[in-house]
Design brief:
Length: 259
Amino acid sequence: MNYEFILVESEYQPHIAIIRLNRPKELNALNLQLMLELKAALASLDEDDNVRCIIITGNQQAFAAGADIKQMESKTAIDLLKIDQFETWDQIRKTKKPIIAAVSGFALGGGCELAMTCDMIVASETAKFGQPEIKIGIMPGAGGTQRLTRAVGKALAMEMVLTGKFISAEEAMKAGLVNRVVAEELYLDEAVKLAKEVTQMSPISIRLAKESVLKAFDSGLQEGLYFERKNFYMCFASEDQKEGMQAFVEKRKPKFEGK
């Protein structure tokens, strides 16, 4: 497909697709069309058997500096209800394949929320994370109050949401928001390196394991344990499970086919 505000590279590395947010003049601000394109690209890649891991990135200056305020400024509550823009975010959350956010520069407002919607975050040492919506008379609406609190805890989340404070990449890592921090020139390479590790595993096991980890955010402990157990049993219906265990016994590297 031809997109206006994103670039999709699915031949960058074996089994890895990269989606680049591409509104550089607007610091990759997330307008409705960009989000719809992102939704469509993720849905397409999710159905592509050649893709096992997806990376979402921006550029060195900005992952995404927030929502497109010019597009939202004149909207009423009823307008936003009819647009149902958050349905797109729900679809991103439903993507079955692992998504890694490769973040450099600003990840603010909707940009921070988009990064948190991904499964893992690799950050450049220049990355800045924040939910500054309070400064323009609103509040986070795409999961910022919920995912941020689960990631960094109540105290820091309250400070960031109620004051609009930004945190650095190092602060984000210490708080548990990101997986690792690297030099600015290496952040995408590091995300690809992490994605390669993921793609070496069984696609079926990866899908079931991702579902189970996410379930921990959506349920109580007992429900989550039940869900995990069910998915564990499901792994034994796959050829990858047989291959993986046979390879272990035979002391060789497994060859997973996603079957």
